[in-house]
Design goal:
Blueprint lengths: L8 H7 L4 H6 L12 H8 L3 H14 L12 H34 L5 H39 L13 H24 L11 H38 L9
Helix pairs in contact: 1-8, 5-6, 5-8, 6-7, 6-8, 7-8
The structure holds fe (ii) ion (2 copies).
The site of one fe (ii) ion has 6 residues, from helix 5, helix 6 and helix 8.
């Protein structure tokens, strides 16, 4: 698979969520509201198109992780992939990051006042993300499983439930936007995760953790917004049960 300079950025990011790390690195906007190609973006945002193209194609072609393109998988398989590759690892990252944010703010907050704001955002993010993953794991994923099973059996038994997958999806995407704004603020506060001279090990670990958190969360969001959710909505639309809920 070769990505071309004329390919649309958000389509690349949605098909290959792993490429989000490159878009973040070069500050390339990959949100679907910007319907522009890599070439157009390079002229607008002034990055080296050849370098970025090569990095993207290398990452896609030589990455050993299984099934980077998940669009052909079932809703159940994609949900499982998200749980194992994003929800669980991100959860493990949250507590140490919060501890580091508090510690570094306490020690260096006077000299680097942005650390106080970073700590506040991390303290906001941790419970928000835990609740978000809980809702997906305990509410959305079981609904997706039921939808997939009903679809596979080609039956409309879901009509008895009178729920629509669009409702939890709308809420999850709203939450993605909310924490996405906070991630952007963290990026600005840390000056794109550039450490000040003489930063101690805890300072370094905090920035490394925050950067990893951002990258994993953006890949997770992309996979859900552009692969999992559209696939579920399309599947639901093909079943007629939606029309039977008249209250
Ligand atoms: Fe998720
Ligand atoms: Fe999510």
């Amino acid at each position: 698979m070769n990505i071309k300079k004329t390919d649309i950025i958000w389509e690349i990011a949605s098909k290959y969520p792993i490429t989000v790390s490159i878009f973040l690195k070069y500050w390339i906007e990959f949100c679907c509201k910007w319907n522009i190609s890599l070439e157009e973006s390079s002229k607008r945002d002034n990055f080296n198109l050849d370098v970025v193209l090569e990095e993207i194609n290398t990452l896609i072609n030589f990455n050993n992780s299984e099934d980077i393109d998940l669009s052909s998988k079932s809703l159940i398989e994609i949900s499982e992939y998200i749980k194992n590759n994003f929800h669980n690892p991100i959860r493990e990252l949250l507590y140490p990051t919060e501890v580091l944010a508090k510690k570094v703010a306490m020690v260096h907050g006077l000299a680097h006042t942005e650390l106080i704001k970073i700590k506040e955002i991390v303290e906001w993010l941790v419970p928000v993300l835990e609740m978000h993953f809980d809702k997906e794991g305990q509410i959305l994923h079981p609904m997706l499983k039921e939808l997939q099973e009903s679809y596979d059996k080609s039956n409309d038994s879901l009509s008895l439930h009178c729920w629509s997958i669009k409702n939890p999806i709308r809420q999850m995407e709203f939450e993605h936007d909310n924490y996405g704004d906070m991630l952007l603020e963290l990026r600005n506060l840390t000056n794109n995760y550039i450490l000040p001279d003489g930063a101690c090990r805890s300072y370094q670990a905090l920035y490394a953790n925050l950067q990893k958190l951002e990258e994993d969360l953006m890949r997770h969001t992309n996979l859900e917004n552009f692969v999992l959710h559209p696939k579920a909505i399309e599947m639901e639309n093909k079943l007629s049960w939606n029309n039977k809920c008249d209250f």
